[in-house]
Amino acid sequence: MTVFTVTRPARPLAEDMFADLGYPHVDFTPLTDGGQQVTVDADLTPDQIVRARCRLASADADREALLWTAYGAWKANKTYLALAAPTQAQAVAQVDALTAQINGVLELLLPELSGAPSTDTPTFG
User: Fold this and answer.
1) Please, which residues bridge with residue 93 across strands?
2) pLDDT tens-digit series, residues 13-72
């Protein structure tokens, strides 16, 4: 059994809201601060708990996917930073990964900042 808490879930709660992830029955217990205690009838890994938290913190599937992708990138970056002496190939791969991550962030931010649709080249002014 796994028990964790979340603050102010963004989605309506349902016992089967994690069924597509392969998690068994889930119970929710309201907390006095507006959060929820989540009890899952299985021993979840830390990554599975994060996946559940991403779902609970997201109002829709797109935001959930974005949070899950960001968690994966963060985890990969932490793994790289923990290397005592990365090889040149690892350093090159990390630069490629960081470039892709930054481009993803910019693709999300630039339309918001410029008012241009995400498929257009941003125009400022």
Assistant:
1) none
2) 888 888 888 887 889 999 988 889 999 988 999 999 999 999 999 888 888 998 999 999
Q: How many residues belong to the chain? A: 125
Asked if residues 89 and 55 have their Cβ atoms less than 8 Å apart, the reply is no
**Cα separation, 7 vs 57, whole angstroms:** 8
Measured CA distances, 48 to 9, 21, 101 (Å)? 17, 9, 22
What's the Cα-to-Cα distance from 22 to each of 51, 52, 66, 106, rounded to whole Å? 12, 11, 20, 33
Q: What are the E-state strand segments in the chain?
A: 2-6, 26-30, 36-40
Q: What is the pTM of this model?
A: 0.75
Which is nearest to 77 in space by CA: 55, 57, 102, 54?
102
Q: Are 6 and 38 in contact (CB under 8 A)?
A: yes
Residue 37 near residue 28 (C-beta atoms within 8 A)? yes
Whole-number percent of the chain with pLDDT over 70: 91
